[in-house]
Amino acid sequence: MEMSEGEEKWRCRPATIYHSFDLGNGHCFWLTVKADTAIRRRIFEGQQRLDTLHPKAFATLEGAFKATLVTHLIHLEWSTEGWMRYIDEWRLIFEKSSSMPKITDIQNLEKECSIHKRDVAKLEERLAVFSPKHQQYMTSSVSELKETKVAMNQNMQVMASIRTTYKQLLDCTEPAKRLGKSCSDQVARFCDRVEAFESILQIQCRRIDSLIERLVDTKDLHEAILQYRDLVVNRNIALSTHLSALRVETVTEDMHEIAKRTEMDTSSMNTITFFTLIFLPVTFLG
User: Fold this and answer.
1) What is the residue-level pLDDT of the chain in tens, covering all 286 positions?
2) Which of 63, 194, 276, 286 is 20 to 30 Å from 91 at the Cα level?
3) Are 28 and 64 in contact (CB under 8 A)?
4) What is the pTM of this model?
5) Dist CA 285 CA 282 (whole Å)
């Protein structure tokens, strides 16, 4: 795991390394495929600092073998770096990022919902901080952390394979005779260093597991809150619809009352008209 220059963003940059060692003449071959010169620079620095990597050390089979082990350690040490800082930054993001709801918001939500349960507008405003974009952010974060853990597990598998290979090499009689007692001690120390590197990665894997578990729990709570928010919105819509129906019913009753009064007025007018038609001619004749 390396920090990109200029972007200030962590990148998981893989490296492909091939190595062979000839126990007959001590010749070794290394092929490293990587997008930058980080490993090459480390090996050059190691040649300047370590006598084991000095060109004169390759004059003997024993010296070439020890140089091979040291070169392995340079590669393996590089593969363990950056993970701790990467995980630390993720923790800071989860604790400080404004793009995620705070855990205190989730814990206090039930209490606030009980306070605002009669005020739907306030309740909706309170629940507005939990949006689907937070859910998407947490989902993508979980996926990235899982991919990171896969890369770390691959590194540990490679380390275990290298350690097993060199242990089995010394279990064979002929290679052990060729390399001598000092190389056997060097292999033992090499295996101890590799196990230490594996332990470092195992610790970081456990930290990632803890981070993923925490994020998944928050994501589940957030999803439940989104469902509750939808329930509140639907309840608000149903309440508004019910109130509208009540208003329509009231208006209908008023219209019915007006119609009844109009009918009564019409009946009265008919009576007046009838008596007018009876008495008006008599009055005219008189």
Assistant:
1) 676 665 567 777 788 889 888 877 878 888 888 877 888 888 888 888 888 887 777 788 888 888 888 889 998 998 888 888 888 888 887 776 544 555 445 555 555 555 444 455 555 555 555 566 777 777 788 888 888 899 899 999 999 999 998 888 777 766 666 676 777 788 888 999 999 999 999 999 999 998 888 888 777 777 777 676 667 667 767 777 877 877 877 877 778 777 777 766 666 666 666 666 666 665 545 5
2) 194
3) yes
4) 0.66
5) 5
